Amino acid sequence: MTLYPLKFKPILKERLWGGTKLKDVLGKPIDSEITGESWELSGVAGDISEISNGALIGTSLQELIQEEGKNLLGKSVVDRFGRDFPILIKFIDAKQDLSIQLHPNDDLAKKRHNSFGKTEMWYVMDADPGAKLIVGFNKSVEKEEYIKSLEENTLLDLMNYEEVEEGDTFFINTGKIHAIGAGVLLAEIQQTSDVTYRVFDFNRKDKNGNLRELHTELALDAMDYSKKDDFKVNYPNKADFINPMVDCPYFKTNFLELGTGMHQDTTLRDSFTIYMCVGGETEIANDWGSAFIKKGETVLVAASSSFINIKTQGVKLLEVTI
Question: Where Zn(2+) is bound, by residue (predicted)?
Answer without folding.
Answer: 103, 120, 178
